[in-house]
Amino acid sequence: MDELDKTQLQLLKNAFDAFDHEKKGIISTDMIGTILEMLGHELDEATLKEIVDEVDQDGSGELEFAEFCQLAAKFLTEEEEDDEAMIKELKEAFRLYDKEGNGYITTDVLKEIFRELDNTITADDLDNMIEEIDSDGSGTVDFDEFLEVMTGE
Ligand SMILES: [Ca+2]
Ligand SMILES: [Ca+2]
Fold it and tell me: Which residues form the EF-hand domain (predicted)?
């Protein structure tokens, strides 16, 4: 398992304290579902139980901070993998549009893609979007620019 860095640990400590209402140094495993939901992971009961059983290593029905960190590490590292998978997928999508393998797609092609995704989009909106995406104004969108659009980063 990947180690969490200091910043992550501090964030986790804050989150842990927030859920540890009675300041006992433990949070009930009943809270795990809620916490994960807040983090954007909605899990069905069976999956949730599996995860709780896995992290609550001493079977106390409560999570000590160390166990809580394990839970977090599980999700934080999984998210990283998701990112990698997403970038790979986007790369494939990009290659699909970059038919000639130039390493870029023209803004005309990108306009077509956006129209396919949303046929209510106006020409003005499209122009504005393209202007924002093609940040160096080259008339082409390279993978970095494409990635920025898709990930919003
Ligand atoms: Ca425990
Ligand atoms: Ca460009």
Answer: 7-42, 43-78, 85-120, 121-153
142 burial via Cβ count (<10 Å: 0-12, 13-18, 19+): middle
Q: Which fold has domain 98-151?
A: Recoverin; domain 1 (1.10.238)
Tell me the CA–centroid distance for residue 119 and ligand 1, in Å.
52
Domain extent listing, the chain: 6-81, 98-151
- Please name which ligand lies nearest the alpha carbon of 70: 1
Which ligand sits nearest to residue 142's alpha carbon?
Answer: 2
Could you tell me the sign of the dihedral formed by the alpha carbons of 106, 108, 112, 113, in that order? positive
Ligand 2 centroid–CA 33 distance in Å is 43
Total-model pTM = 0.49
How far is the centre of ligand 1, averaged over its atoms, from the C-alpha of 11 (Å)?
A: 20
What spacing in Å lies between the alpha carbon of 151 and ligand 2's midpoint? 17
> Which of 35, 45, 26 has its CA nearest to residue 75?
35
Residue-wise pLDDT for 68-106, tens only, equals 988 888 777 666 667 778 888 888 889 988 988 999 999
